[in-house]
Design brief:
single chain, 7 strands
C-alpha cells in the first residue's frame, strides 16, 4: 500500500484554527464561499434529505444548508469545531461513515489542508448514495502568489535561499482528474479569483492568522522569521502589487468541484462506433445558400 503524503502538519493546523476561533476568526472568505455554494446548490433540481458537511473550524456551511426535511451531519477531527447541527468526531482524514448513506456531501475551504486528497475523495464517493452529489470548494494553486513571490525574493536577497511558506494548493486540471479517479460521474471543475485589498502585506498576514491559515507545511522552516526579511518582503510586495491608491492586492483562487455518484439514470456518452452519420458524410453535404 502506498503511504499517504505528509504535506501538512495537521496537529499544528488544528491548534492555529482553535486559536483563531478563540480570538475571533476572520470569516469573510468562508462567508463568500458559503454564499456561492448555497447558490449553486439551489440551482440543482433535486431534494437532498441527508447531507454531510466535511467541515473546517466554523459550522457556517452546515448551518446555511440546514432546512426542514434535511438532516445535516457535520464531521471534523476536533470537538472544538462542533456547531448547532449534528456532529461526529472523525479520526483526522478518515471519513468514518456508512457506505451509500448520504445523498449530498459538501465542503467549503477545508479540503486544501488534506494530505491524501485522492484517498478522501474515494471515501466521499463511497459515502454517497447512487446519484448523490458532491459539491465542494477549496483554495487553488494560484492563491497568494503575491505573498509567495515576495517572501521568495526577500529570502533570496537577505538569506541566500527561500523556505516554503505558502502551501501548494490544488491545480484545476489535476483536481478534475482526481474526481474521475475516485469514480465520480459527470465531474465538473471551475474556479473564480477573489481579490482582497489591504493597506499592506502585514494586514494580509494578520487575516491569515485570524483564519488559522498561517504556514502549516510539514517542510516549513523551524527558524524564527527575521524581522528584516519580513519588512523586506513587505517592501517587495508593495513595489510589485500596489494599486494607484497605495493599497496592495491579495489573490485567492477558489476552485469548485462537483461530481455525482454513478447511477443508471444519468446521462452517458454515446458508445464508440454507435453514430449513424459519418463525419465524412457531414463534410460532403452541400452547404445551404
Amino acid at each position: 500500500m502506498t503511504e499517504a503524503p505528509h504535506i501538512f502538519d495537521r496537529a499544528l493546523l488544528r491548534r492555529r484554527q482553535k486559536r483563531a476561533l478563540a480570538q475571533g476568526p476572520a470569516d469573510f472568505l468562508l462567508a463568500a464561499a458559503v454564499d456561492e455554494l448555497v447558490a449553486r446548490l439551489s440551482a440543482v433540481q433535486r431534494e437532498f434529505s441527508k447531507a454531510l458537511d466535511l467541515g473546517g473550524p466554523l459550522p457556517m456551511l452546515a448551518d446555511a444548508i440546514a432546512k426542514p426535511g434535511r438532516d445535516v451531519l457535520r464531521v471534523s477531527d476536533d470537538p472544538a469545531f462542533a456547531g448547532a447541527q449534528l456532529f461526529r468526531l472523525v479520526d483526522d482524514e478518515r471519513l468514518e461513515v456508512e457506505p451509500a448513506s448520504f445523498d449530498l456531501i459538501v465542503s467549503a475551504l477545508a479540503l486544501q489542508w488534506v494530505n491524501d486528497l485522492p484517498g478522501l475523495l474515494a471515501q466521499v464517493r463511497r459515502a454517497l448514495k447512487p446519484d448523490g452529489l458532491l459539491l465542494a470548494c477549496l483554495v487553488g494553486n494560484a492563491s497568494l502568489h503575491e505573498l509567495r513571490a515576495s517572501f521568495t525574493a526577500a529570502e533570496a536577497e537577505l538569506e541566500g535561499g527561500a523556505s516554503p511558506r505558502v502551501a501548494p494548493f490544488g491545480d484545476v486540471r489535476e483536481l478534475g482528474r482526481l474526481l474521475q479517479r475516485a469514480g465520480f460521474a459527470l465531474p465538473v471543475v471551475d474556479y473564480e479569483t477573489l481579490t482582497v485589498r489591504y493597506d499592506s502585506m502585514l494586514g494580509l498576514m494578520a487575516d491569515l492568522r485570524a483564519m488559522g491559515a498561517t504556514n502549516p507545511l510539514a517542510a516549513r522552516s523551524r527558524k524564527p522569521l527575521k524581522r528584516a526579511t519580513l519588512m523586506r518582503a513587505a517592501e517587495i510586495y508593495a513595489e510589485r502589487y500596489s494599486d494607484p491608491d497605495g493599497r496592495v492586492r491579495a489573490s485567492f483562487d477558489i476552485v469548485w468541484l462537483s461530481g455525482w455518484a454513478p447511477h443508471e439514470s444519468q446521462q452517458k456518452p454515446a458508445r464508440r462506433g454507435s453514430a449513424t452519420v459519418s463525419l465524412a458524410d457531414v463534410f460532403k453535404a452541400p452547404r445551404e445558400k
